[in-house]
Amino acid sequence: MKSSVAIIGAGNVGSTAAYALMMRNLVSSILLVDVDEKRCQGEVYDLVGALSFGGASDIHKGTLQQAGQANIVVIAAGKAQKPNQPRLELLRENQEIITSIIKGMQPLRKDLIIIMVTNPVDVLTMLVQDVAGLPRNQIFGSGTLLDSQRLRNIIGERLAIAQKSIHLYALGEHGDSQFVAWSLANIGGVPLIQFPGLTQSFLDECAIKAKNYAYEIIACKGSTSFGIAGCVSAYCQNILFDLNRVTPVSCYQEEFGICLSMPAVLGMQGIKQILKLPLNEQEYEYLNKSAKIIKESYQLMRM
Ligand code: NAD
Question: Does 250 contact ligand 1 (Cβ within 6 A)?
């Protein structure tokens, strides 16, 4: 099967995502698009050097219109956070960039899947759903998969248990109002809150650490790229191989009228099903709070 992924924004995130896709042998063709054509060409030349160690057959610099004909478009273009800057502050500038990108990609392939990465990702996923003219299930944001992964790593390290065996979800905004559904988190069926060696206050500390990880990384090296590139490659694998795996994605929530992260079944058509989690009362309150924050930003964006 021939599969193509176009990445718009060949900066830290976009070029690292291209590298991850290539080295994981997930796609046959990768297209990079960026307004900074020189940078984009440089990334392509550099990535070509690794082609024979991965699975992709080609990697090229291209146009927005060509991107609109790929199997999957990953959007990682726009302004990134500066040290200590909340993601929501990027909204104004990135809103214009994303709108112009979606217009530039038209006409879109009917079965195109769009993965939004640019921050603030939940609000901008809504924007893309509003302007792209594709079914909502074909457009989702990278959401709290990354936050959930970071948290699993922190807890796994403490317990010396593989992070893949720690089942938990950070949910809501990929940002400061995210929360963890502790009541549903478990290791091998044992609720995490009852797991030997763990206390609720330790878990809460871990959740804060995971939530603030991006700030810490940006303070140290100016940007984050490897974790999100891993997430992008996992989403693409799920779609291109029709795996039907459950993973958190920023997706449209009928109840709130905005996008936020919930676990969903992902496959070839994009989102196949969004899970309805049996959250407890406090978690549902956190979810409402997070939805309210995203909704306020969304309304501000539309003014
Ligand atoms: P970067 O500055 O390294 O790269 C951004 C690229 O976008 C630049 O090369 C720039 O030229 C390009 N660009 C700007 N306007 C464009 C347009 N109209 N068309 C095409 N390309 C355009 O930034 P980065 O570190 O790669 O981050 C990119 C985005 O991803 C930021 O918004 C960042 O906050 C976000 N991000 C999201 C997550 C997540 O989990 N969702 C994680 C990390 C970063």
Answer: no
Distance CA 21, CA 59 (A): 11
Distance in angstroms (rounded) separating the CA atoms of residues 180 and 195: 16
Distance from Cα 13 to the centre of ligand 1, integer Å: 6
Residues β-bridged to residue 73 = 6, 114
The one-letter code for the residue type at 161 is I
Tokens representing 184 are 């549903």
Rounded to the nearest whole angstrom, what is the distance from the C-alpha of residue 34 to the centroid of ligand 1? 10
Q: Nearest-CA neighbor of 47 among 35, 59, 63?
A: 59
What's the rounded Cα separation, in Å, for the pair 89 and 182?
29
| C-alpha span between 9 and 168 (Å, rounded) | 31
- Closest-lying ligand 1 atom to the alpha carbon of residue 119: 32
Residue with tokens 């650490």: 209
- State the Cα–Cα distance between residues 230 and 237, nearest whole angstrom: 11
Q: Is the CB of 43 under 6 A from ligand 1?
A: no
What residues form DSSP beta bridges with 171? 179
Whether residue 39 has its Cβ less than 6 Å from ligand 1: yes
Distance 220 CA to ligand 1 centre (A): 18
Q: Is the CB of 99 under 6 A from ligand 1?
A: no
**How many angstroms separate the CA atoms of 221 and 227, rounded?**
14
pLDDT in tens, the chain (303 residues): 679 999 999 999 999 999 999 999 999 999 999 999 999 999 999 999 999 898 878 999 999 999 999 999 999 999 988 888 888 888 989 999 999 999 999 999 999 999 999 999 999 999 999 999 999 999 999 999 999 999 999 999 999 999 999 999 999 999 999 999 999 999 999 999 999 989 999 999 999 999 999 999 999 999 999 999 999 999 999 999 999 999 999 999 999 999 999 999 999 999 999 999 999 999 999 999 999 999 999 998 887
Comparing CA positions, the residue from 298, 193, 185 lying closest to residue 250 is: 298
